[in-house]
Amino acid sequence: MTSATAKPASAHLYWARNKSEDKVLTGEHKALTPEEAAALAAKSAGGVGAAWNKASTWEEKNIAAWAIGVMRDELLPPLAYELGGQERPLPASPLEAAVASCKARVSAVDSVKGEATYVLSRGKEKVLFELGLKLKLEMELLDESGALHEILTGTMHVAEVSNDELGDARMPSAKFTCDQTAWKPFFEECAKASWPSLKASLERLVEQAKQKWRN
User: Fold this and answer.
1) Angstrom distance (rounded) from CA 111 to CA 107
2) I need a labelling partner for 79 at 20 to 30 A (CA). Which of 4, 54, 203, 213 fits?
3) Is the pLDDT of residue 153 over 90?
4) Cα 195 vs. chain centroid, distance in angstroms?
5) Span of the secretion signal (predicted)?
């Protein structure tokens, strides 16, 4: 016979002392209001990173193939710059050639190799890369009147450039060849002056990677 003073099964739990809590323990659930459901969905959808990593503690993605393709096909081919004047002076030209300015551009991308990784750590994004670049350059040398004086062609091989170098004022170690032998020192100095433009391309790679891989 059941006693009239029998206590519910939850009575021995110090945190379950009222009828509403007894209902929770016995399986009686209250449905969420539309407002509560919407708030819960918004909280689940928010944040940066994969669905399995909502806490954004650590996430790492190998994006090397994507980064190499973007550099090779999109960011390096249009690279161009001009030297001449007080802000970007020309190096000394050989044979006392009357060169007033140099218009340089990437004529071909021979190769882009290396590694790239997208990292999300505690909500902060990083793009880490180590890339080797081999580019063909073409330089148009103009005289004071703007007439074409000479066209130089050659290559620039940067064995390794990483995100650590993005704050540097000078280009990382590189090797150069020039098809016009007498102009090689001039060509090399002009090629080194491509660093601000090359660095800007790498910075764009980082920003594009964050936009693409953060979700």
Assistant:
1) 13
2) 213
3) yes
4) 17
5) none
Which residue would you say has higher pLDDT here, 213 or 132? 132
Answer yes or no: are the C-beta atoms of 125 and 143 closer than 8 Å. no
For the record, the structure tokens of 198 come out as: 């090359």
User: CA 210 to CA 116: how far, in whole Å?
Assistant: 12
Longest dimension (CA), the chain: 118
Contact 8, 20 (CB under 8 A): no
Q: Strands 101-121, 58-62: parallel, antiparallel or unpaired by DSSP?
A: antiparallel
User: For residue 161, which of 110, 112, 105 has the smallest C-alpha distance?
Assistant: 112
Q: Which CA distances in Å does 45 have to 7, 16, 33, 39, 160?
A: 43, 33, 19, 10, 39
Q: Supply 125's token pair.
A: 């994004």
CA 43 to chain centre: 28
